[in-house]
Amino acid sequence: MSYSVKVLDHYENPRNVGSFGKEEEGVATGMVGAPACGDVMKLQIKVGKGGVIEDAKFKTYGCGSAIASSSLVTEWVKGKTVEQALGIKNTQIAEELALPPVKIHCSILAEDAIKAAVADYKKKHADQVVG
Ligand code: FES
Ligand code: FES
Question: Which GO terms describe its cellular component (predicted)?
């Protein structure tokens, strides 16, 4: 299988690899796995005032398309509110990276990772939403 230029770019120069300290203010984590292939993706968001995502990091154990998808979404979520981040669709990721049909689930993994991270954020901050 040949990868697209954009996949190779993100694969060879992944953006925002790593993780935040769990104790850091506003950090939420989404960890998801793809049953189809066993790949695992961890996406962390650092959310500031007003629910705006200030920074994002990822660690992905998986194929080039999964790494490229997670690298791409760390760029896309920055500056968005958590609600806006939920609007990122796997189809947009697949289109941007020109993923072939067999690699569509890699982009779904990235969408799921965003949802999981936002859910974690909401769970942690539920107490602050009230009042
Ligand atoms: Fe092997 Fe994703 S299926 S790395
Ligand atoms: Fe399974 Fe890419 S995430 S092959």
Answer: cytoplasm
User: How far apart are the C-alpha atoms of 62 and 68, rounded to whole Å?
Assistant: 10
CATH of the domain at 111: 3.90.1010.10
Q: What is the pTM of this model?
A: 0.91
ipTM of the complex: 0.70
Residue 119 located in a structural domain: yes
Helix 90-97 / helix 64-77 crossing angle, nearest 10 deg: 110
Residues with CB under 6 A from ligand 2: 34, 36-37, 39, 62-63, 65-66, 103, 105-106, 109
Which atom of ligand 2 sits closest to the CA of residue 36?
Answer: 1
